[in-house]
Write a structure and sequence with these properties.
By secondary structure, this protein is of the alpha/beta class. The chain has a single domain, classed as Rossmann fold. It contains eight helices and nine strands. The strands form two sheets. Strands 3-2-1-4-5-9-8 form a seven-stranded mixed sheet, with helices on both faces. The longest helix has 13 residues. The chain starts with a strand and ends in a 6-residue tail after the last helix.
Length: 231
């Protein structure tokens, strides 16, 4: 059976970017597990369940899944996840990933293992989680993203969120801007700002720009790993 692992932030994942792919993959014949950096329950970004930000329907769906999906309620630590058990790994976004998932050596190793394997394994990285690519290196010590086509959360959007000194609305200092770091690591960046959605497939690596691209990204992964798509 095809197996997929979701690596979700404990510092604040963006609801739709996790729930949409999680629900989509759950409607296929794949098995799905969830991990977090420490094995504690993931935390949903409050802004991603605010109806004024995301709409009533999305807010209610995310809150329901976050509260009741047992995989989210009982994640495993990323360090205990065996890459050989999985055909794909999904890294949902959210600003919180900048403080935990993107800095986690086990998450980086998991990503490296799946994209370097000589099989059909895939990695889907969404929004701020694309920052992980700026820190992950291949087995030769080179940046994994160097020369790859990617999309992700753009500077143009970040400018509308952070304030003076890169402070987030909750007062935390944003440690880096995803677009800047991925470009510096050699990624061929195009967030397709004139398009409603942005999903880029470069071999075994799939990247998505943000919440509105979550469904398209999930379907791209479904096709890539060859599982039965949802009805």
């Amino acid at each position: 059976m095809t197996s997929v692992l979701f690596v979700v932030s404990e510092e604040g994942y963006w609801g739709e970017e996790c729930v949409e792919p999680l629900e989509t993959l759950s409607e296929t014949d794949a098995s799905v597990d969830v991990a977090t950096p420490s094995g504690n329950e993931p935390v949903v970004d409050d802004r991603s369940i605010d109806p004024d930000n995301v709409g009533e329907e999305t807010a209610e769906q995310v809150k329901e899944v976050h509260a009741n999906d047992q995989r989210l309620q009982n994640p495993k630590p990323v360090a205990s996840a065996d890459p050989d058990m999985y055909d794909a790994v999904v890294f949902p976004g959210g600003h919180g990933t900048e403080w935990d998932v993107n800095q986690d050596k086990h998450a980086r190793a998991l990503l490296r293992e799946l994209v370097e394997r000589d099989d059909q394994s895939k990695a889907l990285v969404i929004c701020h989680a694309v920052g992980l690519l700026a820190f992950a290196r291949d087995s030769n010590g080179d940046f994994l993203v160097d020369g790859r086509d990617v999309t992700g959360f753009p500077n143009a959007w970040e400018e509308d969120i952070v304030g003076d000194n890169d402070l987030m609305p909750d007062g935390r200092k944003l440690p880096y801007w995803v677009e800047d770091e991925v470009k510096a690591a050699g990624g061929n960046w195009d967030a397709e700002l004139d398009s409603e959605t942005s999903v880029t497939v470069d071999g075994d690596l799939i990247t998505a720009r943000g919440p509105s691209s979550s469904r398209e990204a999930a379907m791209a992964l479904v096709e890539a790993i060859g599982v039965t798509p949802p009805a």
